[in-house]
Design brief:
Length: about 70
């Protein structure tokens, strides 16, 4: 019975923690929905960027910079 409670708590922590619950997309992509697979990754639109993995958004490029 105790093992069941521990597994329940672990499942709750994993589901509620975004580090464990969402997929870490490559640079140039974001995961705005927090999905848990590569299919949740969305390429950054023209004029926006993501320079690190695990981004949830693509900020606008600074003036004079481009996303290619």
């Amino acid at each position: 019975m105790r093992e069941l409670h521990i597994l329940h708590l672990l499942a709750i922590v994993l589901l509620l923690n975004p580090v464990f619950g969402s997929y870490s997309c490559d640079p140039g992509y974001s995961n705005p929905s927090g999905g848990d697979s590569i299919s949740a990754c969305v390429i950054c639109a023209a004029g926006r960027y993501s320079d690190s993995s695990g981004s949830s958004s693509c900020p606008i490029c600074a003036a004079g910079k481009i996303n290619s």
